[in-house]
Batch of 4 targets.
Target 1
Amino acid sequence: MIELLGRSPDARIQQEGTRIPTLDGSWGAERELGWVRWGDKLNGVPFVWSRQKKAFLTLDCVSAVDRTLTLTAWKPEAAPQDLPATIALNGIDLGEIPLTERPMEYRLEVPASLWRVGANQLAIEVSGTWAHDDIEVGFALAKVVYGEARLVRAQTDARRLNLAGGTAVSYVLEPLVPVRLVLMGKARGSCTLEVRIHSIDLETGLLLDVLQTQSVHLEGDSLQRTFDLPSTSQGRMCLELRLLGDPETRFEVTRLALFENSRIDRFPIIFISVDTLSARHLSLYGHERETSPQLERFATDAVVFENCLTNAPWTLPSYMSQMTGLYAYSHRLYPGKQAELWELWHLAKNRWTLAEFLRAAGYATAGFVDNDWITERFGLQQGFDHFDATAAFLPVDDPDGGVRHVLGQARHWLLNVGNDDPFFLFLHAFDVHGPYIADGDHYGAFSKDLDLSRTAPAGGDVAFGIIPTYVAHTFLHEGLEGPADIVPPRMPVEPFEAAYDEVIHMVDDELGHFFDHLRSRGFYDSSLIVVSADHGETMSDGPLLFGHGALEQDVLHVPLIIKLPNNTHAGTRIIDRVQLVDLYPTLLDLLGRTPPANLHGDSLVPVLRGEGGPARTLLCEGGLMRQAAFVQGRWKLVEKNLGRDSTHALLLSSTHQTREWAEEARSRLLKGGARKSLFAWLDNETLTADFFEERIRTGLTEQLHARLRSDSEYRELIRFLRRANDATVYELYDLEADPQCRGNLARLRPEKLLELKRGLLAEQKRRDVAQSYSQPPQAPPSLEATELQRLRALGYLGSE
């Protein structure tokens, strides 16, 4: 049985009538993008600033009637007097209002023909953005009034749902066997309750045909009905309840449940993902240090995949891919365009996530995460009944934070879960990400007899050939080689590698305690438990030191351990190459649901059964520059373009950029028609000395980067480097003969290179199709100063 009143509806048609922002800068349960909280309340009412010159707000309506639209808005002090703001509804221009520095109410009469039943998009646009308290803003908005409130009130704890006249709710269902719907409730006043079942397009998420309709007229009556729901070929359908009546009518739903016509075993699913965990550094995968004894114990009950690759070399797109079964770049908002990193990614509402599938199949869903990138701000909460990101707000060195906080929250949530209740629990631990700070007995566990003579430049943004400042903080709290807030020019690298292993050992220990807790609660044996990562981490043996975002094997190769219910196939190790995007279709398959054809991953169930098949194709995209890795069988192709989508720090730090290279690039670009002004910086002795000589000697330190940026011709230097490096280059590796990808075979195996380039293009075309079906938000995500500060402290945003 599936009790639908125990979960929030997937969609509501209601009418707030008045929209006021909340104190966190959002607009309530339906978070609107493009706004930021900044300042005190206005007459006790919160207000927000737009982060762009154009911002959007959703106005939900239950009827299309003539309405008065009232806005309370004003301009920043730096903007022109009587700043004109254009107002549009659903793409139709309503006129302009003159914004002043004082909050003013503006009224517009909007005819019924411009309103829609359901969501209406209000757009407000000014001519630019202006500085206001260290941020760029367009205008301020405190309130929008457009009618009386007619609301849906859902109380999931009390399992009650109240509909007002004109309102509706819908639940997306994906039952695993044929079901009957039981509906009970009581009406107040004369009304009609409509029950509709729609089919759903699997790629777009749009409602298609009405498969079934039932209408019940009520005159203050109680209702008790049972409906056999139709079967659909894909299993997914939408249940809609709509109350037709005047605003005073009500219908209280007291029971809304699905009864299955045959028994089905829904095993608990626990998905544990450790951020930045490289398979190479787990003793379970052959690392010389004993970093993962608890995972080794766990693996005796599980299946270990020896060769699992991530689909993105950094956090946000990797989790989008894992949660949707689609390649990472399917979720990029503006393919090919330059923008702030946080503006490029948001999980579209029409994506059908793993959590949404499991909730629609009768699971209670909860997620506990420890990273600003995988929060509601970017849409990762979709499908979770309970989603908690409080761990992300705790300091990285908090002994009660990180994995301990996440697992503690999970234990508390499980207190309310019975042994027969199906649940999906997603747990994300951030501790392994730099800075690598272990505590207790784990601190220093692997730091004896290290070689301190091997050093590297230290103290810069994420770039080639230098230890990033945020990673250097692993040891700065000890005052290593100087004051605690100053990064020495060079630092030994082995202590960082040891510290990384120590943090892994600490997380492994906590996971062991959590597995013991699951055993004590009786969940362990019956559960399907996945342990994996979003990506790995480079160490000191490659061009990028102690980081990710590159397509190095240490970043791409992640652990994947799956314990099946009742420990089926326990102790098996599988050498087939698989990818994280395979997890979603695998879980669907294990629950008896055929994975949809639009998913990019493949079910691993045949592999678990030992069934052979053709070599899988694996795709990883994105990161520090425009780049992709394509793996087929034993071969790995890397395609990259340093001139596109790269940060300034990465562009400046590439070691191939010598004086001779620059002169050769100048000659080539001049022949291609480039203007001579592009090369003026080459005559700047100070700038060229810093770039060609000091950079090679010290690495791109923060001090050197600041000095380069202060030069008046810095922008010309960056423009030149982008143009000179704007070329797609290819690398080819034999993963069986060269697992760490040190020997590029692109020139020696041209026929294999061409074969893999064709394969890469085919997968990217599949990705483009999925991207075209995305329904992204009208405005990109925006971050507040505290969020930007946390991400910058973790090396994500740099100092540009």
Target 2
Amino acid sequence: MLASPQFKNTEELPSLAKSSNKIIEQLDLLMQTQQRKSLGGEGIKRIEAYTSMQDPLLWLHSQKADKKTFWRGRDGEENIAGIGETLVFESEHGNSSELMLQRLRRLLSSSSEGVRIFGGMRFNLSSGSVSEEWHSWKHSRFIIPEIELISTKEGTRLACNVNLAELGDTRRMQELKKLLSGLTEARSTDSSGSTFHYLNKSQNPGYEKWCDNVNQALSEIHSGSLQKIVLARKAEYQMQMAYDPLQILLNLRDRAPHAYQFCFQIDIDHAWLGISPERLYRRQLRKIETEAVASTRPRGLGPGEDKKLAMELLQSQKEVREHELVLERIENLLSQLCDKTTRQSYREILKLRHVQHLQSRFEGHLHPEHGEAALLTAIHPTPAVCGIPDEEARSRIEQLEKFDRGWYAGPVGWFSKNGAEFAVAIRSALMDHQTLRIFTGAGIVQGSNPDSEWEEINAKLRNWESILEPV
């Protein structure tokens, strides 16, 4: 339900307050209709109104709310900010995540077009142990925001998601209207020069243990029990104060313009945020796009050095082997999920601010029975974040890494009735009050070297460390 018409130019667009009032009017009409016709049941009714141009991330940072969601597509064409939670869906066990996703698909079938469900999942859904810092995040958690601000090339829209089962709950509807009437315009802030101070820093594993882990992995690769394994490191910072996670993301976004940018804040003290360059998949009806992103070199100090490093990446047997392992598994998976697949690109260079990767892109036409439950469990985890063979690599990761990955390297994103987009949650961080934990990893294959892999994860951490400063 779109509550206001198209506008010829931005000067005609209503203010945020006027758009909020327009949605409240539509909500009142919906409540009156419910009283007359006994509307209700399962489903989400969505009310939208065009509004004046806003920066969704800056706007979200300006709102007084404990529960916030932000998603920016990698191409930057769509930014979505969400406040509150109309519905929350959590899975306490990995084997129940698929059933939960199937239930959400049924919910979407009885909901308005445009309703999206945002969330993510643990890297290892089969693991029964969850560490204390990840306890609030469950095995998987998905939400529908109460209020959204969506910015696309077509303009900016304000949206309200109404749970039809609560339409007759007067108190609940009054709370929703109060939330709408309390929205404020984005407050301008210059975050580009901000730094965030920490008291101390620790790494798990440290350098010596990292070398031991890599050498153990190389021994297993040499023996033939593994072809590839991805090992991670957790950098933990005790911050000077409890910083706003959205302020951190505001500071990071210009440092990663070609990355997915996301933040899931479940309360005032807990947030999961990241700047991931890697797509898990994007779906539009039955069209699916996915990719292999693996193998790394740093960026050069100038164009000449940068080109030289890119050529090294393309010509290195070790790097090409690592990329091919990921590519082959993804193509095999697509052949099972799709009735038609095509390779859109092959071993092109993906250039980021501090590193560059090999990337190959694929497109397929899905079999009609496959929804998010099938896709997420089939595609995740890719060899770019786990290894080959999958089960053996996952088991060895748990044995070698002395920390819980949690949502690191898991799927994060959204899905709707007709589409979906999920990133791989790498280059990401968990905020727990004054503790910031940043996760990075590197793929280990035959020819890997512990020192060079250590430097690789240092390079992947540079965007984050560029905004952090010791006291």
Target 3
Amino acid sequence: MAAHGTGNAAREIGRIFDGGSLAGLDDAEVLRRFARGDEAAFEAVLARLGPMVLATCRRALRDEQDAEDAFQATFLVLLRRAGSLRRPERLGPWLHGVACRVASRIRAQAARRRQDEPRAARPEGLAGSPALGIESAELRSAIDEEISRLPERDRRAVVLCLLEGRSHEETARRLRCTVGSVRGRLDKARRTLKGRLIRRGVAPAAAATSLSAAGEANAAVPAPLLGGTVAMLAKAATAEAVSAAIAPGILEASRGVVRGMIAARLTAAAAIVLGLGVLAMAAAPLVVAIEPTPPRQDGSSKASDRRNVTVTGRVVDDEGNPVAGAAVAAGTDFREKEPDAEAVTDAEGRFALKGLKAGPVVLTVQGKGHAPDLLATTAAPGMKPVEFELKAAHAIRGRIVDADDKPIAGAPIAADEWRGHHTLRWHARTDAEGRYRWDDAPADMVLIDLGSLGYSGKRYWQAAPDAPEKTIPMRRPFRVRGRVTDAETGRPILAYSLVPGYAGPGPGDHDWANDRVREVRGSSFELDLSTERPNPVVRVEARGYAPAVSRRLDDPSSEAVVDFPLRKRAWIGGEVRLPDGPPAADVRVLAFGRGFVSIVDGRPMMESGPYRIAATGPDGTFGLPPMEPPYTVLALHARGLAWHRQEAAGGAPSATTLKLQPWGRVEGRLRLGGRPAPGQLIRISRADAQDRPAGAWWGDGTQTDPDGRFAFDRVVPGDVRLSRQVEVEAGKGIYSEVTPALVAAVRSGETTEVTLGGTGRPVVGKVQPPPGLARSGGWRHALGFVSPRPGAAAAPSRPGTGGAFPVEADGSFSIEGLAPGTYDVLLQVTPEPPDASRGPFGQVPLAMIRREVVIPDHPTGPDAPPLDLGTITPERVESQGAR
């Protein structure tokens, strides 16, 4: 399909973006047309925002072709997500964030592709551009990296004014604030960005020049790139063969970013427990203090600590018949400890789990000839019996071979993670042909572990049920040996630690296996490294010395000899104290580098990165290997949390004293349809990134009890967001936030009481697919979305202002508690299963409709009757090729 000329784009910009007087189209309508494959909308959006996106990609990537690939992948992501953007007027800042993430993925792809090749020089005018005053790709990328770390309100102003080139007046209109407020945000952002760039080593004059020139460098998108991108989007939107129409690198990068967005919105209940919800990424290092077995926050022994709760229930099959002999277990991780309680169902399928503590609990059921099931609930005295309905069993199978494709017999295999927990108990060994088979597997993905003596094991191997047998190769480990000495004297260092890892694109991007640290006594060492990933590396740490990292060990065919001469350097020191002053002894301390820490129930779920763990002594002090500021020191304890940010560089690291601040607590009740709602998943997280440690994400999840009540004991003080979660696809353990939701202020050492739902007015209705589609099959109802019209309701983070809502299999839906105002309701019918012929992600809607809903001032509240929208039939979404 030929690309249209720039004249068409210019006319559409005039019609769509510059007031819309001819066509009367607002931003939401433009995005709707973009999502439906309107080429005029493609051209208009690309011409208006393309220069900003291309400049962002060029700053992040040295190679012009890589920058163009990132540009196209960014708009592929927009094609996938355009229909779900809640604030279309903020499209520019949203695209800037997407471009940064896409460029990061393209950069990683390029690094893997060119490990043994010199990186191609950038075309003249891109590398070392005088306009930018920057002479390295790292510094060019630093601009966008630091912009993305700004507070949201300041970041939007910077993108709209400095990167998109909009006037202060237009920016104020889009942000719904005064021109003076825009100027204030820009001044604050400039000071922050300049300071951060200077700390990263940019000369003050160059930092100021680079910020001023960033927006000026937004040249028009070259016509071939503009036309090629429009043609690519048209092919993707019209369900043409995607693999042939889109370069693999572009498709891979866009899919990876979309998967990340979906993971941020559709958080599994179990993933909440593991801290895999919405994550805040930061480049600043962290130091985290953890107590391994902390006491209660108040030091008391309450009844809730006693193991006096019994959970009873029944297990039946999908026809309602009792399942006898099924194993029922309570707990979240059975890899290194026994379940909290176990039982076996009797002839009637009944069970009783005794000796549990009151509070959140995960129950897992496994029965011969049935797929397992899992339930997260709240154990409480006198709770109602729970019931499990086990579905038909599925099979997982595979074959393990060596590097010569010969079978490995007797290799152990075990289930590891499923739905975010480690509660499936299954293990086996391969037969003489290297094959294994699990006949009582679940219907969804399981992560399994594979290993064999003398081979590098595999963890978290994705095992899909009922899939064709997959051959899994295993390789021998790679041996490294060497010596560790003092660089000045040449004398051997006799005590140090070896940390295996894998090299990333840059020196600070290495991925360290911190759970496999080896303590060594003696100047010589031998270490076996896994060959399951490319570019293994080794880090050496010795007290009083700067850490050292080996070269990339990219030839695993033979032994490698690596010697480490270490130079002396002071370590980071500090102490941790309890809220009432005494030192906190035996506290584990974590030095965290690039990446993030997820905090769940007051404990960190540690991710890979350049961190190292130590322990405080009786006086509460600790010592950790040095790192370059800025870094944050974060202490987590049952009694509270504290953090300190170290900004200054140069000289010996300053000692840090952390005095813990008591946690807050949240108690609440969920009401749906005017009544308490039992058994519902509730998620809590920080409402924004303000006043929290850099690089730390905090969140948790629980389930309402029979009275609809819930509680969170270890809550980070500040504004928190509470929301209900529902399963998006039955049996797959993927959840999404839906209405109702609210934001509450939590104070240190206090309990905040909330009611979720029961306010505003409910809205109900039913979706009826178009007649032809209803008869054809291969579709399902997607989540609906409700969003307030501009100026029609309170801020989006406040109660009763919208969000996603579930649509049942029969098309019925209920939107809980909308505050008075005017809303847009979006309803969609999508392919099921995902259809690769309908766009690169197989989810281009088959039918969709947007309906305006007005909630009057009265009646509202728990007794208000629902506003019935009746039966709604979405419009069929046809591909352009079929029109």
Target 4
Amino acid sequence: MSCGLGAAVLILILLKLQPDKSAVDVNALKKELEIRHEKAEELQVTLERDQLDLEQLKSKLASLSGKRDALTEAISDATSRMDEKVAEIKSVTESIVKKPPLQKADPVQSDLGGEEKYLLGLKVEGTRIAFLIDTSASMTDEKLVDIISRKVASDAEKKQGAKWRRTQRVVKWLANRIPKTSKAKFVGFNEKVFAIGPTRWFSGSDATAIESVFQGIETIVPEGATNLEAVLEDVNAQSEPPTNYYLVTDGLPTAGTSNFVSMNPFSQCNSLFGKSATISGDCRLKLFQHTIQKHGLHDKRPVNVILLPLEGDPKAAPAFWSWTFSTNGLMISPAESWP
């Protein structure tokens, strides 16, 4: 009996301790499911949008890559064209230096001698312009050894001297710079004085006369001494003397026309008396000063000198500068590339 009662009590205790079964909230679960479904749809939309953006980025990247390749090729082509242009400019520049173009104002076409007034500062002007061109033996070359060597050469070889070829270009440059309203005359001198081209004054617009100067300078053989006194005497003795002088030379004179025997300053200058084949630098300077004092100073008659290089005549530049300065003229010793 007691055993049965204990079993009954145990059963009751076990039933009391067992938890109650709760009811499931289906609506809450449905709502949670809907929320999660909505989030999934949103994530899917975001994913699709990101995939679309990714495809667009890939397309842009491919386009930029293509543009990069095209740009690289374009830069290469541009660099190549630039190199060609640089080479062309260099070639044209060298051509301009060697063969300057004809000016519109040039009466006669010549491929020798460019304008370059901006560089030289030399302006050809005047009512009657006398161009005095030194044609002595020293006008063939710059170095004394070459001058001496060419003295015994043929006339053709003398005419091919580098300095003489340059002198010819200078003459042509000057001839093409004569103002149309001016008159001009080209006079050559060594031991003698002679006309280069027309013997008369000619107009700067006279193409035939200028062409005659061009032809005349080509026929001259540079030889003999430098007699500056003789050429100044000649041009100043004309009925219409020059108003402006342009002298092309390479140094101080080596001969004169005066009676030097009776002049004390020249007592040691034996070459002026025919007693020596050479003349010293001091005697050349005295001869120059005598010549200028006697024939080279005239009121309002500017003297301009183009002094070409000559070895062993250091007193020439200051002497010629002093002469041109005193007449309001100009002395230039141009660059080797001119004209």
